[in-house]
Amino acid sequence: MSRLAGKVAVVTGAGRGTGRVHCERMAQEGADVIALDTVELDGTAGAVEVHGRRCVALRADVRDLDALTEAVTHGVAELGRLDIVVANAGIHATGVPAWEITEDAWQSTLDVNLTGAWHTVKAVIPHFGADGGSIIIISSTNGLRGTANTADYTASKHAVVGLGRTLANELGQQRIRVNTVFPGAVGTAMVLNPATFARLCPGVENPTSEDAAKVLAARNLLPVGWVDPVDVANAVVFLASDEARYITAAQIVVDAGLTQKA
Ligand SMILES: NC(=O)c1ccc[n+]([C@@H]2O[C@H](COP(=O)([O-])OP(=O)(O)OC[C@H]3O[C@@H](n4cnc5c(N)ncnc54)[C@H](O)[C@@H]3O)[C@@H](O)[C@H]2O)c1
After folding, report:
1. What are phi and psi of 37, to 5 degrees?
2. Nearest CA among 68, 64, 77, 70 for reference residue 32
3. Pocket lining: 76 vs ligand 1, CB cutoff 6 Å
4. Which of 29, 30, 119, 185 stands 20 to 30 A from 94 (CA)?
5. How many CA atoms lie within 13 A of 126 on its CB side?
6. Cβ(118)–Cβ(161) below 8 Å
7. Which of 81, 58, 82 is CA-nearest to residue 70?
8. Would the pTM of this model clear 0.70, i.e. be above it?
9. Which residues of 105-139 are buried (b: 16+ CB within 10 A; e: fewer)?
C-alpha cells in the first residue's frame, strides 16, 4: 500500500497508544515518520522500520515550544521534507466535577491538550513546502459534547476544534489542509485502566474490561465498547492522503455511533 508514498509525517504522543498506531499505519502506506513523545519511542521506531520506512524518534514535550521546534527542525533535516502533522498528544486525568478540579490539574490538561496542539502547529508550519500538506488535530467526542466529570478535558477538546477551524482559514491558500478527528472511546491505556473501569461500573467490585465494555457498548449504536487505535489511524491516513486533497476544515467522527445514539 502506498497512499502516502514519499511523504513525511510528524506525530506527537507517538510513544504508545493511538499515536504509535498512527506512525505504524502511515509507514505501512509509505510515509517516513518523525515520532515525538516524552516517553521512550523504541517500540514506535520498530513499528515504522518494520515497514521499510525511516523513523526519527525524539523525546519532546509538547508543552515546551523550544524543545518541540528543535525536534521538528532536526527531524525535517534528517528526512528532507514535511507533509503531514498529527497533533495527537493528550492527557485525560480528572474524574471530579468542574468545581472540584484543582488549579494544577486544570492547567496541566490545558497545557498538554490545547497549548501543546498550538505549539505543534507553530513548530511545523514553517516546514511545509510548496505542495502544502495535511494537519490532523485529534480531538474527542468530548470536543462535540460535554460529559460529567471531564470539564478540563472537554474544554480542551472543544478548544482544539476552534484552533483547527481557524488554521484551515489561515492556511488554505498554501494548500495546507486542517481537519479534526473525534474518536469515541479507544482501546488504549487512557480507557483500559482500573480507575476508568471503576468509574464506569460503580458498585461492581474489581470491575474488569469486560464489565466496562458492556457499559460502554450500551452507549454506542454499534455493538462494541470501544474502537481500536487502528480505526482512528485509518481516518488519519485518509485525511493525510491525496484522496482527501479537497477536504479541509472537516470533522470526522470515529465513535461507533456514540454521539448520534437517540
Ligand atoms: N483513548 C480514548 O478513549 C480517546 C478518545 C478520544 C480521544 N482520544 C485522544 O487521542 C489521543 C491519543 O490518546 P491515546 O488514547 O493514545 O492515549 P495514551 O495515553 O495511550 O497516549 C497518549 C500519548 O501522549 C503522550 N503525551 C502525553 N503528554 C505529552 C506531552 N506533554 N508531550 C508529548 N507527548 C505527551 C503520552 O506519553 C502517550 O504516549 C489523545 O489526544 C486523546 O485525548 C483518546
Report:
1. -165, 170
2. 77
3. no
4. 119
5. 9
6. no
7. 58
8. yes
9. ebebbbbbbbbbbbbbbebbbebbeeebbbbbbbb
Q: Is 91 left (phi over 0), alpha (psi -120 to 50) or beta?
A: beta
Q: Which of 153, 182, 197, 226 is catalytic?
A: 153
CA–centroid distance, 173 to ligand 1, in Å, is 31
**Strands of 32-37's sheet in order across:** 55-59, 32-37, 8-12, 84-87, 133-138, 176-183, 251-254
Ligand 1 centroid to residue 91 C-alpha, Å = 5
**Distance between start and end Cα atoms, the chain:** 38
Q: For the chain, where are the alpha helices, taking DSSP H only?
A: 17-28, 42-49, 65-79, 103-109, 116-124, 151-171, 194-200, 209-217, 229-240
β-pair partners for 224: none
pLDDT tens digits for range 98-141: 999 999 999 999 999 999 999 999 999 999 999 999 999 999 99
Computed from CA positions of residues 10, 16, 223, 257, in that sequence, does the dihedral angle turn out positive or negative? negative
Q: Strands 176-183 and 133-138: what pairing?
A: parallel
Q: If we measure between CA atoms, which residue out of 236, 209, 204, 192 comes closest to residue 31?
A: 236
Counting Cβ atoms within 10 Å, is residue 63 exposed (0-12), middle (13-18) or buried (19+)? middle
The yes-or-no answer on residue 153 being catalytic is: yes
Residue 164 banded pLDDT, cuts 50, 70, 90? very high
Strand partners, 6: none
Cα–Cα distance measured from residue 177 to residue 247, given in angstroms and rounded to the nearest whole number: 7
Q: How far apart are CA 248 and CA 137, in angstroms?
A: 12
Pocket test for ligand 1, best of 91, 154, 216 (most atoms within 8 A of CB): 91
